[in-house]
Amino acid sequence: MKGGGGDKQGRIRAPLLQLESQLFRRVSVVVGCFLFVLVFLFSSRHDVAVLDTLSPKASLRTPAAETLLHSSAGLEVGDTTIAADTNGVVREAEPEEAEHHESNAAPSTTNSGNRATPGAAEETVQDNAVHVTAAATAAQPAMETTSSQRELPGNTGIITPRADSVDQRRRPPLCDLSGARADVCDFAGYIRLDANASTFVVVVDEDLPAGRANGTTTTAYKVKPYPRKGDVTAMGRVTEITVRATSNAEAEAAPRCTVTHDAPAVVFSIGGYAGNIFHDFTDVIVPLFGAARRYHDDVQLVVTDANPRWLARYGALLQGLSRHAPLDLAKAAAAGEVHCFARAMVTLRAYRELLIEAPEPASYNELVMPEFTRFLRRALSLPRDAPTRPGNATIKPRLLIISRRGTRRLLNADAVARAAESVGFDAVVRELDVSDDITQVGQLINSFDAMVGVHGAGLTNMVFLPGGATVVQIVPWGGLRWIARLDFGDPAEAMGFRYVQYEVAVEESTLKDKYPRDHEVFTNPTALHKKGFGFMRRTFLNGQDIVVDVERFRPVLLQVLDNLRQTGK
Ligand SMILES: *[C@@H]1O[C@H](CO)[C@@H](O)[C@H](O)[C@H]1NC(C)=O
Ligand SMILES: *[C@@H]1O[C@H](CO)[C@@H](O)[C@H](O)[C@H]1NC(C)=O
Ligand SMILES: *[C@@H]1O[C@H](CO)[C@@H](O)[C@H](O)[C@H]1NC(C)=O
């Protein structure tokens, strides 16, 4: 609980500080610790005003549409126990297959757990505490790790043992290990990245006697720059980076810079589950946007575990984020390079799937996530910012029905398409191939006004839709409502899309052919989640296909049309 609480506080404050860093920096040159308090108060209030005025997307949300469909689906609400077990995730090798796995769940679902069900959340938070306990003593509240504070004159202060609270205020730790999903190091100074050793050495004090910086007073952190902390499988594919402070005296021995950068470094791994579009976005692209946007495009991306195909596929987006070519750490290591910076951030902050910030304040995501979609459209030259308003018979809104292979297939996608045509859509059934060029995928998706898909990674493609488009998620049988919301529903709304969640009835699931009707799979699916994630995945996620009852689905199609009449142009 302790780690979680401090983290939560930090999450709220960090973005506010970033927005205000300009002002903050100027003021802080003049004032001492006393005025910090005043600056905080001022910057927070100011931000509230900014968020209010820049947050028009609230009007695009349609809670009524979802509840309508929820209530007719006959599902129980008690599906929250999966909070501790699951999360939307896919494997690199078989992106159309298993889209979930166990180990990453706890870190990434904590926040939602807090909101959805206090009971489940408590369990999750405790679970997190296990991960962070060892590190917790080194991590101060995140408010002390923000950029502006680092650039204070205090930056040249003394490396201190943790017990020294006065000095600790002046120098926050290089790394914050309290995050549920990622350990984040964010530091300034004379920074040398010894590529061969995957080590950042930060000279934090010029005057400190060398002996003081040695031994107990110097902190070295080992972090993996990928936001799936606690997920053994993902993190096993991520290179560890060492970050350590050193005194000037010791720094004499450190390797010399071969390249010096003016731009700050942002270091991230594309190991983990790279190659699956959901993971590419939720673990890398979205958090990277969150980290890099404040530098406009003057930031040096440093990539570890680089896969050339991945870099090629997402090259247009990386170029949109930085005018400098990404630095491949492995290549730099082979060349024996030492890169020097004045500022660096190792690992990306991540909180929930496909969102940049913690759920509170929600208004932050509602401000930044639409900006994220605008960034994508700009970077990929996607032409449409708004959907087409359904007009007369010659102007039909375009509906994409995403089909999946392997698991959770929509077996009657063609019938759904015909139903959509009958109410006035131009409907297309399409399978999206993960190897497609991202610009081509973006162009294709952007030509649609709405998207329908069964829960799965393919829904991630919604990010390319025109703003105000509608996303329909078909949720398979089995108490999966909650995870559907977490993975795609909440992000869709934050991005400024309309969202409709269609939860299938027993008759629409092929599970009905596998189990007798009085089986617990139907009478109490949520209880079965307690049997563990493996069981749940086999039974509910990978064990069924969907045959949508077209008549039951028709109101959804009409709802989408109605949305487009409101948001279309
Ligand atoms: C500090 O540590 C470095 C490297 O371990 C060593 O070379 C140096 O002599 C030490 N300095 C003192 C004063 O102990
Ligand atoms: C990288 O480090 C290893 C082990 O420390 C060393 O043997 C090798 O020569 C180094 N390579 C370069 C290019 O500096
Ligand atoms: C349909 O709308 C288009 C564009 O607004 C217009 O050019 C066309 O004449 C309209 N057709 C009918 C039948 O109203």
CATH topology value of one domain = Rossmann fold
Fraction of residues in H or I helices: 40-55%
Mean pLDDT, all residues: 74
Q: What coarse outline follows from CA principal-axis ratios?
A: globular
Q: What is the number of E strands?
A: 15
Question: What's the total helix number?
Answer: 23
CATH-derived architecture of one domain: 3-Layer(aba) Sandwich
The CATH top-level class label of one domain: Alpha Beta
What is the first-to-last residue Cα distance?
48 Å
What is the CA-based Rg, rounded?
Answer: 24 Å
Class based on secondary structure composition and strand pairing: alpha/beta
The fraction of residues assigned to DSSP E strands is 5-15%
Largest sheet: 10 strands, mixed
Q: What ligands are attached or bound here?
A: 2-acetamido-2-deoxy-beta-D-glucopyranose
Q: Uncertain segments of ≥5 residues (pLDDT<50)?
A: 1-99, 101-169, 213-217
Any overview of this molecule?
The chain is of the alpha/beta class. It is built from 23 helices and 15 strands. Strands 1, 2, 3, 4, 5, 6, 7, 8, 9 and 10 form a ten-stranded mixed β-sheet that branches. Helix 12 links the parallel strand 7 and strand 8 (300-304). It is globular. The chain binds 2-acetamido-2-deoxy-beta-D-glucopyranose (3 copies). One 2-acetamido-2-deoxy-beta-D-glucopyranose is lined by residues 210-211, 214, 250. One 2-acetamido-2-deoxy-beta-D-glucopyranose (NAG) binds at residues 196, 336.
